Amino acid sequence: MQDWFQTPPGRYLLEWEQDCIDRAVVDIFGYHALQLGAPLVDGLRANRMPHRWLGVDHSGAPALNRTLVTDYRALPFPANSVDLIVLPHTLEYSLDPHATLREVERVLVPEGRVVICGLNPASLWGLRQKRSHIYQRLGYGQLFLPAEGEFIGYWRMRDWLRLLGFEVEHGHFGLYRPSVAGTVWLERFAWMDRLGPKWWPIFGAAYFLVAIKRVRGMRLLGPAWKKTPARAGQSVSVVGRSPSRSRFEE
């Protein structure tokens, strides 16, 4: 998919996803952030956590603060230790997306967030890809999207997250232009990105999700910003015997 990102549709997708991720992660705070896959998407550039890693399943990828060559199904982090994980098309190209998502849930801290980008099979792009697969079986045609990977639908992804105890905080679609390969034609259909969210919102070529890891029965306690000062002991009046009047005052 890294080569496909260099094509006009790929750059169109990359620009949209980069903008969505930047706006989502800029106000997420913590200590440890991790991106898995898609090195061309700098998913942590807008985040300010002190420790950021890029996890890749092959060597030679550009580094953020640190680069980890790892199996996404067995991340080298203890449980409940990472505050933010970004998955740009990671699950689509994982050998076992279920295991990868379970591992993400394991290493995330309670109330930690996962950011997911995916391609929508129920879109103009997805329909062209299905048609191209049929043509290829007949011996002709060319795929519009990368051949590898399995595209996971938006609602299916939400179900996976819900089963693992995540709560979807935000989700939306984007990229409503048709599946054309040239830059000129993509620009001619730019008006569809303005009308798409209103007239056919669930048929965008890509979707974006932010989910929070919820832990049942957990209650977060905030710092005691204001301490109530201890009340000083109040004076208590004592009913006593009034002093006797002197004989000289009589």
Structural features, described:
The protein is α/β, with parallel strands linked by helices. It has one domain: Rossmann fold (3-Layer(aba) Sandwich). The protein is 27% helix and 20% strand. The protein has 6 helices and 7 strands. The protein has a 7-stranded mixed beta sheet with strand order 3-2-1-4-5-7-6, with helices on both faces. The longest helix is centred in the N-terminal third of the chain and has 18 residues, at 8-25.
Short description:
By secondary structure, the protein is an alpha/beta fold.
| Overall mean confidence score, pLDDT | 83
Distance between the termini: 112 Å
List the helices and strands in order: HEEEEHEHHEHHE
Structural class: alpha/beta
Instruction: Report the helical percentage.
Output: 25-40%
Strand content: 15-25%
At CATH level 3, the topology is: Rossmann fold
What gross morphology would you assign? globular
Query: What is the architecture at the second tier of CATH?
Result: 3-Layer(aba) Sandwich
Radius of gyration: 29 Å
Structurally, the number of domains stands at 1
* Largest sheet strand order: 3-2-1-4-5-7-6
CATH class designation = Alpha Beta
Number of strands: 7
The number of helical segments is 6
Largest sheet: 7 strands, mixed
The CATH homologous superfamily is named: Vaccinia Virus protein VP39
Low-confidence segments, ≥5 residues, pLDDT <50?
241-250
Protein name: SAM-dependent methyltransferase
Organism: Rhodoferax aquaticus
GO molecular function: S-adenosylmethionine-dependent methyltransferase activity
Domain Methyltransferase type: 66-116
